């Protein structure tokens, strides 16, 4: 029987194993040491490794990110945790102007092994400033790596890869994914960088789903089966470096690409993927492309409008149907078994 | 000690004068923020340190870099954009670094390296090393949120760090009195629970004495941090080799007492003229060699554009 873990426990196990393996790994951020322990991802670490290696911080996002840079310069491998990604905006100076640039700007004299973990919120009225998937900001800047794993298996393997990497890695978690369970090996392993995963085989249309939208794409695949459309689903996992080879190869086969982003469409990861694939395949293969993402508005907390804000399985299926059949006349009704596990707030 | 002070002060002054001299030739392809007039702060502080100690600084980087022992040849080569530069031509004047001598970098964005210095000091505590960290910044940095966040955290964790605020009264062209409701920076820093004091008069001996005492305390394992607000004055324009009194935001009369109080001349008057001449000759020779080294070094090859974006991982 293969062992199953939640996404939360996969993160916690990866952190603990790496801290045990390497004394230079330390973890900090607001509330990493409180009873809730960042949804449980840092539970028990203070007891095992002590308060100097695992500590809660004042909010101070810029200074704490700058401190992570300083620790990395001194030979540590810091993991800095943000309960919500939106707070990273207060640390942009250190991330963009210092962390991303130091190795290059100092001619290779220094390097910064550091991980910044952050969570994207959704539902239960998370609203305007608790629900943004802002990873495209970081994909834009040379010197940063960005990863947004979907499964517990990838969460563990990507976090270990991020900790062992000698560069700043932005590690993006989605709050709804924390509830996911899946097979996670006990041993330490890395999920290789710049390698996407084909999560479901198909031949008519390629669906690329980023972060939580990966689940919605897999749901869309089920709806599409009922109308005889076979979707291939891909999880890019690493957004920087991005595996365009795997996606292009799939699109060369299906001729149709839908990228579903967990973010707004303009200048987003989805736009980047569509542009890269188009550059690869233009003149070689006729393709049709479509981008999906957040509605181009601020995320509303009220449930009726929030439902409209996000792509979901039925909407993605309808868009794929249109791309394949050329007709805009089908929208499956949502099935109860193809919804997120509901959770009660407030957090 | 006076001889060491003089050598370091003279060396920084003359390097920057030489930079000013060659600047119109357009060989230095880098904005330069000269420290002329402010050298006493860097020298007074760095003479109190050991080679293993760490300094972080600002884009006005030449003085602290040289005072801490940063390589002169490779600094000038960096200003010339040559591959032999400290950052292989990718940093420029605002991003000098020399790890071997404990110079851990400088930022163009004001206040930024304060937090980096604090993080380094945290790592030193964890690693149980006896080195200490010095963070240099200007009064402009005190305007930034990261300054206050960093003071709080350094005090909270009692870190082995010394903060040096080089107060030259101006953030580019805007006077402190137009930026701060309370002009006493040291006083505000005390509210974070940090022993803080102001050192007036750009006085190299006072700076050295007080910083040495702080270093001794930290070295003995006692809790930090310490904070010194060192009053000083920038003689030249904010960026570039010239004067800027034509802009009208300050006057030559304001500068006059600082020039009269030049610490280089002050220390020169305290040492034996023959020995002084010898120091000057040695420094002049070293500067000549450094500029020749920069001149004769090659520019980076095209492939260097793509080097060092990422550090390879094992």
Task: Tell me about this structure.
The complex is a heterodimer of chains A (347) and B (314). Chain A is 35% helix and 20% strand. Chain A contains 12 helices and 14 strands. Chain A is globular and about 60 Å long. Chain A has helices spanning 7-21, 45-49, 61-73, 92-99, 102-105, 135-139, 152-164, 213-225, 244-254, 269-281, 303-309, 313-325, and strands at 4-6, 25-28, 54-55, 77-82, 114-120, 145-147, 168-174, 181-183, 197-200, 205-209, 231-235, 238-240, 256-264, 288-294. Chain A folds into 2 domains: 4-183, Rossmann fold, CATH 3.40.50.970; 197-338, Rossmann fold (3-Layer(aba) Sandwich), CATH 3.40.50. Chain A has 347 residues and is of the alpha/beta class. By secondary structure, chain B is an alpha/beta fold. Chain B has 11 helices and 8 strands. Chain B has helices at 2-22, 39-46, 62-67, 72-79, 112-126, 145-156, 185-190, 204-219, 252-260, 263-268, 273-296; strands at 54-58, 103-107, 133-138, 161-167, 170-171, 174-175, 196-199, 226-231. In chain B, strand 3 (133-138), helix 6 (145-156) and strand 4 form a beta-alpha-beta unit. Chain B is globular and about 50 Å long. Chains A and B meet through helix 3, helix 4 and helix 5 of A and strand 2, helix 5 and helix 6 of B.
